[in-house]
Amino acid sequence: MVYSLTYRRPRYVSSSATSVISEKSEHAESTHSGSSGSSSPYGIPEALSFDKIIAGGTCPPCTTRDFMNFLVYIEHAAENLQFYLWYRDYVQRFSQLPESEKALAPIWTTQQQEQALANQSNTGLKKINADVAALLKGTDFGTKVKIPGDHAPNPFNTPPRTPTGDTQSLAPSTTARTEDSTTLGGKDSYNQIAASAFTDAGQLQPFTIRPFQEEITRIIAIYLADGGSRQLNLSAKERCVLMEALSRTTHPSAFRSVIATVEWSLRHQAHPNFIRWTICNGNRPRVVFARMLGVGGIVGGLACGIILTLSGAGRGWRALSAIAFVIGIATLIAAWKGMCVVLHGMHHRHLRPWELFTDDSDSDSISDPELTVNLKHYSFDSLTSSNSYEDEPWVARYEKRNLVRKVFDREVWIKEPALRQIQDTIFLQAMGGALVISAVAAGVFVALPKGGFF
């Protein structure tokens, strides 16, 4: 079974602000990748929708693990998915709290959200980098902000500095501990980063003991603070509004607007790009090699047709050039879409570079019970430091791999039926296009008069 022959694979969605804004306006009413206004335009079948992948309803190489690996190693933008998975888990854990603890973290209402947005729009304050401000000082472009002196302290600066000027007093107290505090290492440093983020946003630092306060502090330090190891791509207004919400509550509703932005980016940018990338069954060297074979087949067909036309052979013999044309054109069209027809014939795919090398201390099954790879468990941990992978052993080992070995790398069977159907459809499209073009090219050679030169 295949999809319609008019099927088009998902186009690459750029991460530029212009494309994001334009697409967001087009899909403002669509919230699910599998819905009828969202999945079809991207060329993604229902079986490979975003919700199916996140819910674990797909097979390799279209699982949540594969999605995460794609964002870590290919797109270098895994923070959105990591934050989204953390938020889903956080909502479940918060709902299981007793009512007495939930009362300490009231809901962040839509009215409060709208008021916070209005306050941010009215202020219109622009924060300039310290280096830029120093360069512009004394010019017409320099900022002229009145800084209150010691004689007129701002009563709204909270908390005030101590007479000794101890900067540690700006951090919230770390004496109170919750049941989760032992699992969140480096608490003091995260508290300082979160305190700085609250101060930059002009918000009061939360001193009350609220459920999951230490976890939220670490989330702020990693995902929200400027320079965080997994800083989300949020506007200054979104960040300030979120910091105001988190200064008042740890209820999941505080993340309402931010999680909507993150989820939209995953559904309409990362997810289509992931499906487009997954359709490619060969690595880069193999696809380039397939393109060269396609070009070689086309050149062979041209040479065959020219030689037979210039010879004394009958016209019928010239139609043999169509065989080389079909093979070459079909291979080239499929390779242009990232597919190798040889691998497709077996419904195989190349193992990804990070799947090739086994780490016995941290291995699990992927795509085939006999193939084990390092599954990068930390990439699913929302509270780790960064997504850097340059120091992983497979990077250096794969770079040392010679080109021929990369072209004929290890293969594994594609388990996901929907992905195989997409590849079958692309193969039929390539064959159909090759048959039409080959028929025209062979017909031209057959119509030419006999050369009779030899």
- Unreliable parts: 17-22, 28-40, 144-185, 360-377
> What is the radius of gyration?
29 Å
Query: What gross morphology would you assign?
Result: elongated
Number of helices: 20
- Label the structural class: mainly alpha
Report mean pLDDT, rounded to a whole number: 80
Sheet with the most strands?
2 strands, antiparallel
Q: Which oligomeric state applies?
A: single chain
The H-and-E topology, N to C, reads as HHHHHHHHHHHHHHHHEHEEHHEH
Give the strand tally: 4
How does this structure look, described?
It contains 20 helices and four strands. With 454 residues, the protein is mostly helical. The strands form two sheets. A two-stranded antiparallel ribbon has the order 1-4. A two-stranded antiparallel sheet has the order 2-3. Strand 2 and strand 3 form a beta hairpin. Helix 7 crosses helix 11 and helix 15 runs antiparallel to helix 20. The two termini are 49 Å apart.
Describe the SSE topology.
Layout: H1 17-26, H2 39-42, H3 50-54, H4 64-75, H5 79-95, H6 99-102, H7 110-123, H8 130-136, H9 187-200, H10 213-224, H11 236-246, H12 256-279, H13 284-310, H14 315-318, H15 321-336, H16 341-345, E1 348-350, H17 353-356, E2 363-366, E3 368-374, H18 393-399, H19 403-407, E4 411-413, H20 417-447
